[in-house]
Sequence to fold (500 residues):
Amino acid sequence: MASNQHRPKPSLSLRSNTTVRYGSMSSEQPDSDTPSVQTASISQRCSYISVAVLCYINLLNYMDRYTIAGVLLSIQKYFKIDDSTSGLLQTVFICSFMLLAPVFGYLGDRYNRKLLMIAGLIVWIVTSLGSSFVKNTSKHFWILVLTRALVGTGEASYSTIAPTIIGDLFTGNKRTLMISFFYICIPVGSGLGYIMGATIANATGDWRWALRFSPALGGLGLLLLVFLIPDPPRGASDKQGGATLENTAYIEDVKYLWKNRSFVWSSLGVTAMAFVTGALAFWTPTFLSRAQVTQGLRRPCSEEPCNPLDSYIFGAITVVTGVVGVFLGTYISRRLRDRFPNADPLICAFGMLSSSPCFFIAIILAGTSIPATYTFIAIGELLLSLNWALLADILLYVVVPTRRATAEALQIMVCHLLGDAGSPYLIGAISDALRKYKPDTLSWDFHRLEYSFLLCPFIGVLGGLFFLMTSLYIKEDRKAAELLTSGEAPAPPETSTESM
Fold:
């Protein structure tokens, strides 16, 4: 065996004032909840308060994102726009979010994360509030599109950086639980966005007031962020020594992630999930409203505000199934993870593969039975919500601490580029393309959107297959991340002969 002075250095450089421990791996389990030395300066109470604040802001992010969907019928009537044009409101938001995420990922691995989130949140509040002051002309509609694009700046900074702070405050099962609280805000915030948007628009008679609610609450979130959130050392909770890792060149980070098979396959799975959830979240209330008009259960909307009932119901379903699904997925993961190292991606695969038939049946039944449609939508959303917390946890334990913000950013960019950045517009574009066959028919308005929706279940099956591929590599990639973090990474091929 080679002596210590000839051992190859790990591929990530270490701080000069840190002693690197070589030799056998610690017998402690990586899932232990014992805090590391580096987090001693941050009290447990402060850590829990930080998670509560981060959850609150994440809730507001998703409330704002889906308020537009909750009042979409009113917006279409107000600006007299078709399906594809209205789908642009979500697409431009996701595109700006997607393009800026890598920028904040790079900055988040290198600079003060708290200041970056504060700057992003300020931009979000200002632009989201500004989008509520548009007027009823085609020119002003494009101002609405522009402001919704700028809103993505705030979410790009926050969604990229916040999970890495939680990852540096907690470890093991406690980290999984805290991450589940953070990601439960996705379905809960989305559902509240439908409900609050529709309620405020209906009460005021003006959909623009609905866009002013989240920014008002965002001011409180900004104050809480300034005074209550710490910026812990990167990797502080990783007992293997993650806080001692230094940053490397961005191109090296990207190469590392590209070779991380669990990260690549799980990112493709997240992309398919984003496509499905983006399309369903944006179009479902409008789709179900048209279904009831076709069945003679409701009159078509002639002036805004339009009937908000479907936004209420779909929002409530999203909240309930999101809460139950996230905690159920976390519970199953904690029970199975010790016995099956690949349990997390297998749970995600099950969620995707089993939810797809539910959504397919719901789409088919929409023209004949609204209660049955809502039932299968609820089951499908419950199964899909099993994945939310596990997706973030997978990224945190297969990627070393100093590359997590970059990994979050690249995953966000890919999943939105190929997922929900285009799916709302694509569904609307297909629907508009089918209009020429039976123009100006209420029944056909429903069926053309129905046929467009059928793309989603097939994309869901594809996502399930991607998660099955992740399960083949996750044990190996997790162990590699632990070795690299501890400074015990194996020798690179080109230097291995030096230790002979």
User: Anything to note?
Assistant: The chain has one domain: 43-488. The longest helix spans residues 261-294. The CA atoms of residues 206 and 305 lie 7 Å apart. The chain is about 70% helix and 0% strand.
